[in-house]
Design goal:
The chain is mainly beta and 148 residues long. It has one helix and ten strands, in the order αββββββββββ. Strands 1-2-9-4-7 form a five-stranded antiparallel β-sheet.
């Protein structure tokens, strides 16, 4: 039986190859120790040609079972669109109600939002999230822990 590749499967293949090629090479400073929170890895970083001063950055966030990140903010210039790739993520933005997003679901974060809850919803299974940032190109710190 001959397999026909659709543009969707080719796009997914490309994303998978990009993730595999970059996952081990470029890290994101998260302000927390690697064994205390999720692992965050830059999988792409590209200037947006028709929007001077802005870039699109893809961050793969991998949560072990029961792992949570500290409350945090992202740069005020950042618009973020997150898609759960595996497992389930429990999140709350700006002290809103906690919401669980499962694989295939996505959510936005607006510039200036406070991420007050960010954790793997499972104590036994891993979870992965792809966060796509549209952010000022010169922005280096993508996550700042909230002050307690």
């Amino acid at each position: 039986m001959k397999r026909i590749r659709t543009s969707e499967s080719v796009g997914l293949l490309r994303l998978t190859l990009i993730v595999c090629a970059l996952v081990a090479t470029v890290g994101v400073r998260s302000g927390i120790a690697a064994d205390e929170g999720p692992k965050a890895t830059v999988v792409f970083d590209h200037a947006i040609p028709n929007v001077p001063g802005k870039s699109m950055k893809g961050i793969l966030v991998e949560y072990g079972p029961g792992v949570a990140s500290v409350g945090h903010t992202h740069p005020k210039s950042a618009f973020i669109y997150a898609t759960v790739l595996e497992g389930a993520i429990r999140t709350s933005v700006n002290d809103g109600p906690a919401v669980i997003y499962r694989a295939g679901q996505n959510f936005p974060e607006m510039p200036g939002d406070r991420h007050t809850l960010d954790e793997n919803a499972s104590k036994t299974e891993p979870a992965k999230l792809l966060a796509v940032f549209v952010v000022n190109t010169d922005e280096k710190e993508l996550l700042t822990p909230l002050q307690k």
